[in-house]
Amino acid sequence: MITKEKLRNMYNSFFSKISFRDIFFGTILLFLSSITLYNTYQINNLTKEPIQEELKLENEKFSEEEVEEKGITFLILKEESKQYDLEGLLKRYPKAKPYIPYINKAVKKYQHMWPIDNLTVFAKIRFESEFSQFAISPKIALGPCQLMPYTAKDLGLKVPKELEPEGFYKARIYDRNASSYHSLAINAFLREEDETAKYYRSIYKKNQKIAEELYSICKREIKNWLKTASEEDLKKTPFDIEAATDAGTRHLAFCFKSRKGDFRESFSAYNAGLGPVKKEEGIPFIRETVHYQNDATNFYKYWSQKLKITENNNFYGLSREGILKKIESELFWFSRQTIPILGENK
Question: pTM of the full predicted structure?
């Protein structure tokens, strides 16, 4: 039988062999291991979360049958979006010329998600890549709309293995770890724990350096592939102007839908991802993102006053005359469903 005295003796004999230093460093090691495992888990799920949520939101669109059931009320609740004459921008942005017809087409295609206008999409491409078809960011965002390889793939674009090098996801892991240790270093500094802050900062620097080296290798591999790629190889990839504009517009419309039309938050979500925007409940404090959404907002405010409006579109991509005809037909259908017509058999 184990008595209290025996338990006390066992406890004392066990802890007499372990120093306080062993316990301290063991706890630190366990803490750092748990952070690394958690971040690795997050990286492995980076490609799933945003698109799963996007597909869920996109599937909430109304079918033609539901439009018929809701009748005229449904149409009145729809907001209109203006479409601008983007030809007025070509003098300043001549490289944008091949993009304009695809922008106008994509905007009408995704009106069911959110009524964004063509100037909004123009601003996005202008500040993402300056209309450079073969743009590659330091973190391997690809093409004129700067789509990450996994995002492009989930948006329906073709992503050959050459555009998704083996080192890319390793770089993402080190990049995320660097971000986590940077946050730990800042928190430690704010608590005036200078030694701990220095320790975390050193780990942050190591992870950041490895991530940058891996990204650099990936970028070099993609550039080498582009030198030999044919037009057929580039079709439906993030470097295909038409396909990339379509996918980028869809992704931007989803960001607007997720942030309920807030221009600044929607552009921040496109640039930094929805996760940081949701976490901060607004614009995340990331230097690149802050500048990006500020530039896009100022650009939109300026040119929306300068450019001619070509048409007012609703969610169906109809002109004002078209929506009036739609309302008239809906009213006729609605009246037939609710009011018996004299002389008709029951």
Answer: 0.68
- 229 and 173 fall within a common domain: yes
Q: Give the per-residue pLDDT at 124.
A: 96
The answer to the question of residue 102 being in a domain is yes
- Please write the tens of the pLDDT for every residue from 289-313: 999 999 999 999 999 899 988 866 5
Give the pLDDT score at 10.
64
Among residues 188, 208, 234, which one ends one of the domains? 234
Mean pLDDT over residues 78-96, rounded? 84
Q: What is the mean pLDDT of the chain?
A: 78
The answer as to whether 289 is a domain residue is yes
What domain range includes position 220?
Answer: 159-234
Cβ(103)–Cβ(245) below 8 Å: yes
The answer to whether residues 92 and 142 belong to one domain is yes
pLDDT tens digits for range 40-83: 555 444 433 343 444 444 444 434 444 333 333 332 224 556 78
